[in-house]
Amino acid sequence: LCRRLKCLTSASSKQLLGTTMTPFLLLFVALTAASPAIKIRQTSYQEMDRNRDGRLEQLEVYYAMTLDQAMLALDHDGDGYFGPIQIYQLTSDPTLFQQLDTNADGRVSFDEVRAGTNIVRIFDREDTNGDGYLDGPEADRIVFIYVEMKIHGLENWAIDLMDTDQDQRLSKQEVKDAITMDQIFAAADLDEDGAFTLTQMQTALMDAAQQINQLLNANGDDYLSFAECRALLDMGRFFDFLDFDDSGYLEGAEANQAAIKYKLIRNRAMGWQTDPTLDTDGDKKLSQAEVANAMTEEQIMAATDENGDDFTFTLQGV
Q: Which of 76, 154, 268, 295 allows an S-S link to 149, with CB 3.0 to 4.6 Å?
């Protein structure tokens, strides 16, 4: 664009085109050069805005990318490390580089990024008015990262990880090896009450939600407990719901549905904060020793003995 503008503003160009036409031509060239980038951004925004309400909610961002996808997209030299500019591109926070560089080696590794931030925190930082949505300029950072993912061919990153035999489709075993139903339940249960409304069921299961809700909601209260889900639904059956053409494999849009669940699980897992009363060393992980110090087997059994008979457990308690 700069070269074109320089050419048009040269003396010879002015003589050929006339000084009165030059401003209009400059504007035309600028708009022409910028339009592909604008179109890519608009298309990317539309892809992420799944409910078409003109704004991005948390779940739409969770569905679109994971922290690892974002890091790979911004790591242009592929060395697995970030400098200050790349950290700013990822987080919009000019002060975060020094916080993330925990070993003070002047660069931030992927592990240091994972330890210090996640997609949940990035979303919250961009949501400047705190309304739970990214509107207008608030969405610019996330959309920029998503465009970088597309440019570097990372849209199918989750599918590629799940597709262990690299045949460009997902078998039932590959899906079972990658995710579990309990992981899906926990990740989609945003209010963490151990049950789903139909809206939350749609979050968890999307296209198959209405059909599964009718099948599993045994007591008809429009409130589907995890126990009702587990009674009839396992990963094999969930796979069958996603396999719309009954081919025995998930391909294309079918595979994308499974990938969305995978990314949701990854993002939600990274967003959960470890209880400081359990995580005594503050490393955001629970060691065997920390768990053993926090509770005994007898305490666990007493806490899950629903009827207090000191003898048997219901299946839900187990």
A: 154
